[in-house]
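Before a colleague's protein record goes any further, I have to sign it off. Thanks in advance; the entry in question is below:
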Amino acid sequence: MPQVRVHDLRHTFGRRLRAAGVSYEDRQDLLGHKSLRITTHYSSAEIKNLIEAAEKACRRENSPTLLLISERRVA
């Protein structure tokens, strides 16, 4: 598999750890990182999860954000 690099495998492993719900500290240890920034880089969120999280916030009843948007539309 000449197109696969070790770097690619580290990203895949980091993202799979995050998707499996592994804690940040454990991901950092498993990936062998000392820097918090690097661990975040190697275990970035899946876009699907970010969209679902945003949709949950929008469905929340009496949300101040939603009320503020509603008030602006009326004005």
Q: What stands out?
A: Residues 22 and 71 are 40 Å apart (CA to CA). The mean pLDDT is 77. The first helix runs from residue 6 to 19. The chain has five helices and no strands.
